[in-house]
Write a structure and sequence with these properties.
9 helices; six-stranded mixed sheet; Molybdenum Cofactor Biosythetic Enzyme, Chain A; five-stranded antiparallel sheet; Alpha-Beta Plaits; elongated; alpha+beta
């Protein structure tokens, strides 16, 4: 369980991810895009704060896009931009922004260069539809582009294509301070640490402290993960947690990294 820290700082850049597709909600398809995006954003100093999964239902997609784009610096959607009838993300994003859906000339050109003569049918041309004012996101894998409207980035659901699109847009994003992490592991149970850990959290409200129990080789223990952007405060809080572990008879193991 993660204990909450203080309110978002003015310099913090935050993001949300919207995963679109009945196949995700049914369990038929296992989403692989979330961990990839989260890691990429964290490396850029952008904090992924919320993830939603919605079905291929127009009203739900529109409502989610509007809710998230109002709350976050960036919103990233995956899924629903292919050539079939259930690929309705582009149309829904256009409606969310109150603009028409248009056939983008450059998107058409890219599709024409990709498909053999006569193979670019009406269904495939749907992948060139972009909300008015949108800019394209490159797709080096299968050429059908994603697009950006405002602070919303619309990408494919296929992991290989989505990952290529993320790599294309990362240089265009403005990040904040990178989140740093320290992990203090020990063989003490959570219940033994809980009271003292809460006191450490109160002393360092801008540092996130999460407690994650584990069972390894029939041995119970806990990993205490501290995250923050201020390295000095993070080090102080980490030492306080390590001291708590020692005071309770444990032996802390500390690992540094990004989170």
């Amino acid at each position: 369980m993660t204990q909450q820290h203080s309110a978002q700082s003015a310099a913090e850049v935050i993001a949300a991810m919207l995963i679109i597709g009945n196949e995700i909600l049914s369990g038929r398809t296992k989403d692989a895009n979330l961990p990839f995006l989260a890691e990429k954003l964290n490396d850029a100093g952008i904090r992924l704060r919320e993830v939603r999964v919605v079905p291929d239902v127009e009203a739900e997609i529109i409502a989610a896009v509007n809710a998230l784009r109002d709350r976050y610096t960036y919103v990233f959607t995956t899924g629903g931009i292919g050539p079939t009838h259930d690929d309705i993300t582009a149309e829904c994003v256009a409606k969310a922004f109150g603009v028409p859906l248009e056939q983008h000339p450059e998107a058409v050109r890219r599709l024409e260069s990709h498909y053999e003569s006569g193979k670019l049918n009406a269904a495939r041309l749907r992948m060139a539809n972009v909300p008015a004012g949108g800019t394209l996101i490159d797709n080096p894998v299968s050429k059908a582009p994603g697009f950006r409207v405002g602070n919303v980035f619309v990408m494919a659901g296929v992991p290989m294509i989505m990952q290529a699109m993320v790599d294309a847009i990362m240089p265009t994003l403005k990040g904040g301070a990178k989140m740093l992490a320290r992990t203090v592991s020990c063989a003490l149970p959570e219940g033994t640490l809980a009271e003292g850990l809460g006191a450490v959290q109160d002393r360092y409200p801008t540092i996130e402290i999460g407690s994650y129990p584990y069972l390894r080789h029939k041995q119970y223990g806990v990993s205490l993960v501290l995250r923050g952007t201020d390295e000095k405060l993070l080090e102080e809080a980490t030492e306080a947690v390590a001291a708590l572990v020692r005071d309770l008879g444990g032996e802390p193991s500390i690992i540094a990294g990004t989170a």
